Each structure stands twice: as structure tokens, then as C-alpha cells.
Amino acid sequence: MPEKSPQQSFSSDEAWQLILQTLKSLNDKPALNEHKKTIIAEAVAALKDLTKAEKYPRYAEFLHRTLHDAGGGGVLVCAVALGQTRVVRMRNKERVSLLGKIKENPRIFGDSNITLLVVHHGVPRSMKGAKTDPQLLQQLTIRSQSCWTLLGKVTKRARAESYLQQTVQSSLET
After folding, report:
1. What is the separation of C-alpha 126 from the centre of its chain, rounded to a whole number of angstroms?
2. Coil, strand or helix: which one is 5?
3. What pLDDT does residue 24 have?
4. What is residue 130's three-state secondary structure?
5. What DSSP designation does 56 have?
6. Which residue ranges make up each domain of the chain?
7. How confident is the model at residue 71 (pLDDT cuts 50, 70, 90)?
8. Rounded to an integer, what distance in angstroms lies between the CA atom of residue 81 and that of residue 40?
9. With contact defined as beta carbons under 8 Å apart, do 74 and 108 qualify?
10. Can you list the alpha helix ranges (DSSP code H) found in 29-121?
């Protein structure tokens, strides 16, 4: 896959591939350079520091959903793979679709090397470790619910299109 700049919008499929590549490289070689350590520290700050979460609500929402669905390993891998800029610049429907893929595959983030990195860098392992202002959490929940509604509509549309294609294909064959 050609390298994209952070300024370009990523599709959920491209972002997912980048996450899988990062996951493989972290499992093979769990050492992190300074840049990746900084990215992880920013992600942890967005989860634990309410002023950071208010400053970057899309990123904080993405990290909170990832933490909820895939734990600290998911947060660490997504932060290293995508970083704040790529997550924020993704279209809302692509970000929601990516969260759906993360939610469907939480176990891939539980490797022992990933868990060691999570502990070493102080990434919260659950929602209890993330500080949340009730008002901010309510705003994130409302936005997440609308995102999941959108994902449901996108999924239903994709299923309908797939069914339609199958129906047309089978009628052409007969």
C-alpha cells in the first residue's frame, strides 16, 4: 500500500490495513522509537486529561470507543498506526466503520508484547483508567450513538446492495 500523508483522508480499509501492519511489527519487534513514544503519550493524555479531550474531541471519542471495545492494546496500536491527525481527518463514516472493525476483532490486540507496552507506557487497560467528566462522557456517548446509527445504516445498505447483486446475478444465470 502506498504511503499516504496524514493530510489525506484514509478509508476504513486502508486504516485497518495500517493497524494490522503496525500490530505485526509491534509483535515482531516491540521496541518503540521516540516519535512513537510521543504519539502514545498524546493518546494517554487524551484519555486521562479532560482539557486534551475537549481540545481534540474526535480523537478522544475514537480512543474512548477503542478503549471500551478493544482495551489498552487497541488504543496503543491505533495510536501508533494512525496518530491523532489521521484519525481526525478521516471522514466520520470511515471512522465509524473502522471502530466497527476494531469492535469485531478485539482479541488481536491482546498479544503479550502489546500488553507489556500498554503497561510500560501507562495506557489505561479499561474505561476505569480513563478520567472522564460526566458531561464530556455524555457528549461522547451521544455522538457515538449517532455514529453507531450511521454504521447500522451503512451496513444495512451494504447488505441490501449485496443481496440485490446476488439476485441480479442469479436471475442472469437462469
Report:
1. 15
2. coil
3. 93
4. coil
5. S
6. 12-173
7. very high
8. 10
9. no
10. 34-48, 50-55, 57-89, 92-104, 112-120
pLDDT in tens, 147-166: 555 555 555 555 655 655 56
Write the pLDDT tens digit of every residue in 108-130: 999 888 999 999 998 987 776 56
Task: Specify the residue for cell string 500490530.
Answer: 23
pLDDT beyond 50 at 25: yes
Label residue 158 exposed, middle or buried (CB < 10 Å: 0-12, 13-18, 19+): exposed
Q: Given this model, what pLDDT does residue 131 score?
A: 55
* Own/partner pairs, 16-19, CB within 8 angstroms, 24+ separation: 16/98, 16/101, 18/81, 18/82, 19/77, 19/78, 19/81, 19/82, 19/102
Compute the residue count for the chain: 174
The C-alpha cell of 172 is what? 442472469
